[in-house]
Structure formats: C-alpha cells, structure tokens
Backbone:
C-alpha cells in the first residue's frame, strides 16, 4: 500500500503508459472504468486512487464481482442501518443544517463549544463531548470557522475540488438490452435483457444499468419495461443543458448502442444534475486531504474526502467514519473518564440533511 500511496503525484494514464500500456487501451477500457469510479478520465485521475482499488480487486476475490442493490438505496442500504441504530436508542434528526461551529480559544487550545443547528426558520445550539463533521467537500468548506484557516490542515481543505455529474433515468415500454428476441423485448409480463452494471467507451455515459432488471424489488413495474439509469461523465457540458435536451441526447446514444431499442418508446425520464458531487481524485491532491483527528481537541472529520485509501465511495465514507470513531475513542473517551470517573456516550454532533 505504501508504494501505491507514493504514486499520488502522477495520473493513472502516465503510470499506465510508463509500464507499456497503450492509449487505445486507456480510451477503450480504462477511461470508462475511471469515469465510473471517480467521474473523471485516466489523464485526470491519480494513479494512487486507481491502483488502490485494483489492488483490492486483485487480492479480494469477492470484491471483483459487480453487484447492484436489490432495490432502492433507502430500503436496502440506509434502512437496515437506521433500524440497527434506532434499536439502540440512537436518535437521528434530518432536515437540519449546521449553520455555525461555536468555539473558544484558551491558552492556545481551541475547543468546540456547540453547533448552531437550523431547522427551517428555527435554530438551536447543541452541545456534545465530541463533534464529528461528516460533510461533503462544499459543506465542510462552508461550515469551517474562517479563523481556523491559519492552520494548514484546515486551509488545505479549500484546495480540494469536486466533479460535476448528471444522472439520467429513462423508462421504456419494452426491454432495451434484450438484443436477440423481439417477442421477449416487448413482453412486459417479466423483465428481459442484461442483468448487470454495463460500461461503454462509445457514449457520454460511461456506466449504466437497467434497474428494472438489476434492482427489481423497487424498480420493476408491472406493465412497464426497462428503467435505464445512466451516469453522464464528464458532467461539465450537461450542467447548463435543459433536462429535456439531456434526455433526448442520451436516448439517441442508447439507440446507437442498442439498435433494436428503436422499436421501443421512452415513456418517462428524469435528470439529476450535481454541479459539485464527488471529491476530485486528481494527481497531487492527497496531501491536502485532512486526517479525521484535527488540531481542535474535540472536533473530528469524517467523509469520503478525508484521508482514507479507497476512492470517494460508500466504502470510503465508511472507512473514514471508522477512523473518526477510533480517533474519538483514543482522544475524547480517556479524558471523559478522567473528568467524570466513568464511561459516557460520545454524540455525533452533525446532523445529515
Ligand atoms: C450519481 C452518483 C452515483 C454514485 N454511485 C455510487 C456507487 O454505486 N457506489 C458507491 O460506493 N458510491 C457511489 N457514489 C459515491 C457516494 O455517493 C459517495 O462517495 C458517498 O456518498 C460519500 O459519502 P460521505 O458521507 O462522505 O458524503 P455525502 O454522502 O455527500 O454526505 C455528506 C452530507 O453532509 C451534508 N451536509 C453538508 N453540509 C452540511 C451542514 N452544514 N449541515 C448538515 N449537513 C450538511 C450533505 O447534505 C450530505 O448529505 C455515487 C455518487 C454519485 C453522485
């Protein structure tokens, strides 16, 4: 892992070419993969980031299987976690925005004293033993007290950048990826076609899937056909386009990839544009990612953009959360025990919106 970390300053494309890899291979195979992983191409993604993930695929056989959730992320990912936490008396507050981090500076030591949390027009100050700020890059850049920027570890966060992305969903009255059998293609009584995540170098979307096939519990609808979800990368050219223009553009490219889908009608579409999504895993940026433990004794950072070896992903976010938890246990709990002579609970200070 150490050797891979040292490859952060070069792009994956430069690293690949330096080992005899061809531009054709980058264009046809590695770019769609880089787009799918980090929403940027091989010239713009750090070698560290790509090699870390491929080392994982190479060494853990179960990690190299492509899988989609059975249904919606809420039902199949978040809800089991929420149920687990709530069964242990954790209270989760959503639709609240942290407006301000309150702090004191005494004898050279900075400590957070509370968070100003807003819900609509009302706001309250919450206090805790430890505060974890589990934001995305735009969120942390907005919320950090400007006074803290005198410390490089906080100021460096403002050097981090994000990537734009647009996600498109198209519903059809038949099965888009059923290339062989025309009867199956139009038969809406059951799903047909390719049941997996798909990649292409020949369209503006690098990776896509028919959710009605891959995640049927939430997305297969009786009497309806494919629900294609396609991720447009790079997202930059699409952010200013109208949703209708984007949907028509994508439909045209779907027709080129799957000529038989011209026989089908698109019955519905939806476009979600995120001007600032993932942390941009560009070469040379690793030194600017903050550790979970900060110079402020009771203030911790989590989130995929903080220091962790995976790409900006759910795994990356999870690893960062574990590291933040370890840092709290090592730094805050011993002090609490000393002060109160017992074991107490550590609160998560930042509510997710
Ligand atoms: C289109 C798309 C597809 C993706 N597909 C996959 C995939 O298939 N697999 C995968 O592993 N990853 C995927 N990802 C990446 C994954 O979503 C992220 O890596 C992951 O969500 C990062 O988690 P996080 O907790 O670091 O940040 P986030 O999930 O971004 O959470 C940060 C939260 O902080 C909140 N916040 C910010 N400021 C404040 C504030 N002041 N007060 C309160 N809350 C605040 C934000 O609203 C946000 O909800 C995808 C991302 C996108 C955009």
Residues:
């Amino acid at each position: 892992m150490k050797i891979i970390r040292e490859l952060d300053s070069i792009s994956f494309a430069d690293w690949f070419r330096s080992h005899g890899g061809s531009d054709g291979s980058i264009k046809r195979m590695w770019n769609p993969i880089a787009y799918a992983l980090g929403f940027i191409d091989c010239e713009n993604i750090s070698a560290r980031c790509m090699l870390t993930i491929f080392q994982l695929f190479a060494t853990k056989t179960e990690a190299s299987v492509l899988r989609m959730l059975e249904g919606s992320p809420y039902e199949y990912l978040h809800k089991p976690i929420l149920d687990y936490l709530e069964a242990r008396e954790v209270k989760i507050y959503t639709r609240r925005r942290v407006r301000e981090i309150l702090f004191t500076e005494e004898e050279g030591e900075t400590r957070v004293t509370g968070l100003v949390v807003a819900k609509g027009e009302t706001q309250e100050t919450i206090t805790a033993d430890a505060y974890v700020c589990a934001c995305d890059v735009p969120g942390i850049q907005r919320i950090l007290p400007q006074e803290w920027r005198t410390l490089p570890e906080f100021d460096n966060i403002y050097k981090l950048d994000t990537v734009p992305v647009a996600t498109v969903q198209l519903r059809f009255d038949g099965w888009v990826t059923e290339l062989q059998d025309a009867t199956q293609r139009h038969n809406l009584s059951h799903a047909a076609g390719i049941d997996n995540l798909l990649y292409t170098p020949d369209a503006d979307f690098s990776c896509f899937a028919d959710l009605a096939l891959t995640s049927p519990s939430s997305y297969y609808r009786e009497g309806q056909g494919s629900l294609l979800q396609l991720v447009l990368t790079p997202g930059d050219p699409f952010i200013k386009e109208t949703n209708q223009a984007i949907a028509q553009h994508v439909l045209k490219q779907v027709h080129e990839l799957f000529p038989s889908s011209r026989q089908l009608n698109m019955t519905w579409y939806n476009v979600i544009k995120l001007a600032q999504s993932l942390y941009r895993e560009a070469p040379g940026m690793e030194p600017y990612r903050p550790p979970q433990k900060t110079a402020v004794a009771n203030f911790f950072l989590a989130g995929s953009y903080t220091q962790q070896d995976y790409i900006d992903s759910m795994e990356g976010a999870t690893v960062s959360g574990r590291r933040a938890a370890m840092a709290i246990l090592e730094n805050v709990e011993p002090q609490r025990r000393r002060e109160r002579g017992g074991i107490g609970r550590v609160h998560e200070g930042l509510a997710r919106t």
Summary: The pocket of flavin-adenine dinucleotide is lined by residues 97-98, 134-136, 139, 143, 165, 167, 231, 274, 277-278, 303-304, 312-317, 350-353 (CB under 6 Å). Residues 342-353 have pLDDT under 50 and may be disordered. The longest strand covers residues 109-119.
